[in-house]
Amino acid sequence: MEIIAQRPKSLTDLQFTYCPGCTHGISHRLIAEAIEELGLRNNIMGVAPVGCSVFAYKFFNCDMAEAAHGRAPAVATGMKRARPDMHVFTYQGDGDLAAIGTAEFIHAANRGEKISIFFINNAIYGMTGGQMAPTTLPGMKTSTSPYGRDEKDIGYPIQACEIISSLKAPYFIERVSLLSPQDILKAKKVVNKAMLFNKENRGFTFVEFVSTCPTNWGLTPAKAQQWAKENMLKFFPIGNFRDKSMEGGE
Amino acid sequence: MRNKKLMQGNQAVAEAALIAGVKVCAGYPITPSTETIEILARKLPSYGGRFIQMEDELASIGTIIGASAAGKKAITATSGPGFSLMQELLGYAAMVELPIVIYNAQRVGPSTGGATKPQQGDIMQSKWGSHGESPRIVIYPSSVRECFDMTIEAFNLAEKYMVPVVLFSDEILAHMRESVELPEAGEIKIINRRKDAKPQNKYLPYDIDESEIPVLPPLGEGYRYNISGMIHAENGIPNLAPDVIEACITRINSKLDKYYDDIVRVEQIKNDKAKIAVLAYGVVTRPARGAIEKAKKNGIEVELIRPITLWPFPEREIGEVAERVDKIIVVEMNLGQVAIMVRASVEGKAEVIQFNKICSRSITVDEIYNKIKEHV
Ligand SMILES: Cc1ncc(C[n+]2csc(CCOP(=O)(O)OP(=O)(O)O)c2C)c(N)n1
Ligand code: SF4
Ligand SMILES: [Mg+2]
Fold it and tell me: What is the total count of domains within chain B?
């Protein structure tokens, strides 16, 4: 029998333990495919966050570390500086990256660390059961914003790509969406690009995935995608924010 | 039956905080304490208060210290990883002598450990986790009703003695549901910090009367004083003269000494015939009581001593038990943190035997009973 589709070898055979319809599985697969297609499986190390993807080590078939909540970019910095011949990525949720780990994230970007950060923005704290995230949308009800996020009181959602776009060092910054098959195909190209720049040690690369958390949004997977298309993309427009490879002289 | 409710430890803490008069809760979600901030997020607005979700635990404790400096009662709720991050400012609160309450529902550590599993691993950290030496009061309930009562007590102690208070629970107590009969609001004693500051022209924040407890009017009322984490003189201004350093550190660390009897509480089942005592605290007190009952039925007389207050450590009460019994079995869900303190308290007058369980399963009546039997 001819095999026409299979899991990339950079993913283990384990079935994902994420909730049905959760986009963590899609972003895992896109990253794993890029690792495989660029031949990086034996010289890449990943750093998982604390969040639903604390279990990422089970699924990525490469050396993995789980950092304390928010500290992945610092741990990744140490790994890369100690082994410049290796390639390093982090995989982080919105609480991990844009709340508790804001300092590590911004400073890794500002130093131009030659690592990739993959940022899973699902506008909520998935693992702890649905609390407000720094990316929670105005008006959105969560268990810690029971009356809806009031942006006048607690601020607007944090736009990670926009923030680090004000820094000079980052090499590549792009926001993608996982909300339709077409978007996922586009996202695949972007992930491959970031990973290629990582392979070539060009500088700091950052990809934000506009994602869903059907469980804590209280929506079916299909409705979650629809809701995200209608609401998330307004605050988190997809597109490229920085690509130094297009700028000629770097 | 009046005011009877089925509730969780985390909920009891939140409900009591509202009654104690909390106006600010700042926190960052973390299992197994999150329900406390979720309830306060929902309820504080109707009590004229605010919940603010912060970006992490450093900011959470910073915010409640600021709220306390501005004169309001404030609480944060956390668990191990967050408690570790709070250590710097916990020392700061002790240094500037502002009352705050930190609720720590302990989970398995170290590090990320295990979010949904219990442990009693933060006992030493609650006293010594911050650099330098500074005071705090640490208390540990053993039931949902006690979670309620001791949240009120935590605020009363904090306000009375101008000191940070750590209120412990653990994953079992935090999530356990019990039917509790809550006191009526009128039956609950609420203590607020002193307001009898000297007139502004005579006022120095740390020029302290014989009570040893400073009077700190809310910042923002025009008293024009400064609080500082730096070693400070009576005027609150940083000063690194050796005599000021000595006076500052000595005073904050000894200010609770003369209130030992008011602060330190233990639960005891005394027994003149007993040659063995069991020491347990927090949720472990429950199987310890059962084991003592079972021993009695089987003709073995055993005492119980339970530190309700962990810091200041009840060394007098434990020392007194050691006068009567030959052996003290210290039962803990850690590798023996309170056992260290018990050894120091008994000064060789009784043998200290440890029973430690760290696998996260709760300690059972039979396990403690069997340990007692081994030592009869
Ligand atoms: C210091 C510390 N504080 C809090 C927590 C609890 N905690 C675990 S995961 C998490 C948030 C997860 O949300 P996010 O990063 O958005 O990831 P998701 O689960 O949504 O993918 C929090 C607050 C922790 N583990 N450590
Ligand atoms: S809780 Fe949300 S983010 Fe976590 S696995 Fe489930 S759907 Fe995904
Ligand atoms: Mg999230």
Answer: 2
Q: Kindly state whether B55 is in contact with chain A, defined as any CB-CB distance less than 8 angstroms.
A: yes
The helix/strand/coil state of B327 is: strand
The model carries a pTM of 0.97
CATH number at residue A147: 3.40.50.970
Nearest neighbour of A100 by CB, restricted to B28, B34, B41: B28
Max Cα-Cα span within chain A: 60
Q: Which of A15, A215, A219 to mutate to test the pocket of ligand 2 (most atoms within 8 A of CB)?
A: A215
Q: Are residues B273 and B179 in the same domain?
A: no
The H-or-E segment that residue B172 falls in is helix B171-175
Domain that holds residue B51: 4-187
Task: Round to whole Å and give the CA distance between B153 and B141.
Answer: 11
* CB nearest B53 (choices: A69, A70, A132): A132
Q: Is residue B107 part of a domain?
A: yes
Last residue of a domain, one of B142, B161, B187: B187
State how far the Cα of B365 lies from the Cα of B33, in Å rounded to an integer.
26
CA distance A232 to A50: 23
Give the count of domains, chain A. Answer: 1
- Using an 8 Å CB-CB cutoff, list chain B residues near A145: 41, 53
Q: Are B145 and B320 in contact (CB under 8 A)?
A: no
Q: Is residue B78 part of a domain?
A: yes
B178 and B61 both lie in a single domain:
yes
Put simply, the answer to whether B53 touches A145 (Cβ < 8 Å) is: yes
Question: In this predicted model, what pLDDT tens digit does every residue of A162-203 receive, in sequence order?
Answer: 999 999 999 999 999 999 999 999 999 999 999 999 999 999
Q: What number is the ipTM of this complex?
A: 0.96
- Chain A partners of B55 at a C-beta cutoff of 8 Å? 99-100, 102, 134
The boundaries of the domain holding residue A118 are 24-243
Summarize pLDDT for B24-51 with one digit per residue, the tens.
999 999 999 999 999 999 999 999 999 9
